């Protein structure tokens, strides 16, 4: 999968992309992140990428010409892949959207290509949104100084879903949110740490019992922390019976 990132600050991406799983994914050609500095498509003496807003008011607005020139010279006109503008006004990013971006139209994931435009300043010229972006995504109801961190978050969440990226092929299946529920608690050695033990079921070796315990913990945890998710989750008859049998105060 190829990510074409358009930004005024390509250097902020490098350290994160060169670490850990993202670096491994890139070395194995499972994910490639190409960074394009929007400033390289300015043709004035001072390489200006922003200007004052028409109508006055504070702040600066990202000019349309360098952004259009950058995206069209890399992706053609019209662009050959989805062009996502990172903005707090976009649709909210979540795990479902990460899956959609990782496997667009059920195409082979290695063929997939995604362009990400990182806005800066107070905003971008509206014509970028209207005539260049094909989608707008926000990573949450807060305002960052630019779309770079949002782009990194999206790249990270999408890359780990590409088959072969995680060591364990099922690594992403149990993730919090993958099934619509928060994930169950994890424990590793030692079996006792500072007097705190590990739930007996996990030490039992009984795989069916462990699977049931994990499901119930996921249900309990989601009910306690994110009842909004529980209301939308796909639940089996057995899940419903478990939840119905709980009293109001049951917690993890
Ligand atoms: N740019 C600034 N804030 C943002 C947000 N919350 N999501 C995506 N891009 C942004």
Features:
252 residues, alpha/beta, Alpha/beta knot, 5-stranded parallel sheet, 3-stranded mixed sheet, 8 strands, elongated, binds adenine
Ligands bound to this protein structure = adenine
How many domains in all? Answer: 2
Helix segment count? 9
Alpha-beta content class: alpha/beta
Shape: elongated
Task: Please report which band the strand proportion falls in: under 5%, 5-15%, 15-25%, 25-35%, 35-45% or over 45%.
Answer: 15-25%
Overall mean pLDDT score?
94
Give start-end ranges of low-pLDDT stretches: none
Taken in chain order, the helices and strands follow as EHHEEEHEHEEHEHHHH
Summarize the topology:
Layout (H helix, E strand, L loop, with lengths): L1 E6 L6 H4 L2 H8 L4 E6 L12 E2 L9 E2 L1 H12 L7 E10 L2 H8 L10 E6 L4 E2 L1 H6 L3 E4 L9 H12 L47 H19 L1 H6 L4 H8 L8
Parallel strand pairs: 1-2, 1-6, 4-7, 5-6, 5-8
Antiparallel strand pairs: 3-4
Helix pairs in contact: 4-6
The site of adenine has 13 residues, from strand 5.
Question: Could you please describe the fold and organization of this structure?
Answer:
The protein has 252 residues and is α/β, with parallel strands linked by helices. The protein has two domains: 2-159, SPOUT methyltransferase, trefoil knot domain (Alpha/beta knot, 3-Layer(aba) Sandwich); 192-251, tRNA(m1g37)methyltransferase, domain 2 (Trp Operon Repressor, Chain A, Orthogonal Bundle), CATH 1.10.1270.20. Helix content is 33%, strand content 15%. It contains nine helices and eight strands. It has helices at residues 14-17, 20-27, 64-75, 95-102, 126-131, 148-159, 207-225, 227-232, 237-244; strands at residues 2-7, 32-37, 50-51, 61-62, 83-92, 113-118, 123-124, 135-138. It has a five-stranded parallel beta sheet with strand order 2-1-6-5-8, sandwiched between helices. A three-stranded mixed beta sheet has the order 3-4-7. β5, α4 (95-102) and β6 (113-118) form a beta-alpha-beta unit. α4 packs across α6 (148-159). The two termini are 39 Å apart. The model has no long low-confidence stretch (mean pLDDT 94). The structure holds adenine. Adenine (ADE) is lined by residues 86-88, 119, 138-140, 142-144, 146-147, 150.
